[in-house]
TrEMBL record:
It comes from Ancylomarina salipaludis. Belongs to the peroxiredoxin family. AhpC/Prx1 subfamily. GO terms for molecular function: thioredoxin peroxidase activity. The active site is at C51 (cysteine sulfenic acid (-soh) intermediate). Transmembrane segments: none annotated. One of its GO terms (cellular component) is cytosol. It is found in: Cytoplasm. Keywords: Cytoplasm, Disulfide bond, Oxidoreductase, Peroxidase, Redox-active center. This is Thioredoxin peroxidase. Thiol-specific peroxidase that catalyzes the reduction of hydrogen peroxide and organic hydroperoxides to water and alcohols, respectively. Plays a role in cell protection against oxidative stress by detoxifying peroxides. Residues 3-177 form the Thioredoxin domain.
Length: 209
């Protein structure tokens, strides 16, 4: 699938769990358009091993995202009922109790497919029947979506490779800096550091230091 960078994030409406304890229908990222940036991330499955470390890590840094007026939303191919059960299981028993940002249910796998992170594919047997090949779960995809609903950053990890939440925050800072000041952010830039104007003179000055 082609990159979504610079394109509108695929629209969807789905069931989700909010605040760790409320199942809702008709959840959509459209509610954030014009109001907030969104960090929308996929993980393979509830009740697994690397996944709770990531979801809890996002919760641990949720205040940092909220200070930046950024919504965090997770998604997997599990049902909303599986999400609810996991969210209400103690952490010392493999759960993620205390996670409060929304978890979207993608039981049909269409959201993962539309975002290009579905690990499985489809082939046909000799009789022409569609068969699934590969793991029917989502890769560890993350998408930074701006206030216009456009994807500005994405990263997709294979199933065994956990992500850096700090890097997601850094990319939020870079996007917001560019939008506020019009300056571009060089390699390894962090909030508070000097950025650059998008000119050759600015680049030469930056590299000469």
């Amino acid at each position: 699938m082609q990159s979504l960078i610079g394109k509108k994030a695929p629209a969807f409406t789905a069931n989700a769990v909010l605040n760790g304890n409320q199942i809702t229908e008709g959840f959509s990222l459209e509610q954030f358009v014009g109001k907030k940036e969104v960090v929308f991330f996929f993980y393979p499955l509830d009740f697994t091993f690397v996944c709770p470390t990531e979801l809890i890590a996002f919760q641990d840094k949720l205040e940092e995202f909220e200070k930046r007026n950024v919504a965090v939303v997770g998604c997997s191919v599990d049902s909303e009922f599986s999400h609810f059960a996991w969210l209400n299981t103690e952490r010392n028993k493999g759960g993620i109790k205390g996670v409060t940002y929304p978890l979207v249910a993608d039981l049909s796998k269409t959201i993962a497919e539309n975002f290009g992170v579905l690990a499985s594919d489809y082939d046909y047997d000799e009789e022409g029947n569609a068969i699934s090949t590969g793991a029917p779960v989502a890769y560890r995809g993350l998408f930074l979506i701006d206030k216009n609903g456009v994807v500005r950053h994405s990263v997709i990890n294979d199933l065994p490779l956990g992500r850096s939440v700090d890097e997601a925050i850094r990319m939020v800072d870079a996007l917001q800096h560019f939008e506020e000041f019009g300056e571009v952010c060089p390699a390894n830039w962090s909030k508070g550091e000097k950025a650059m104007e998008a000119t050759q003179e600015s680049v030469s000055e930056y590299l000469s230091k």
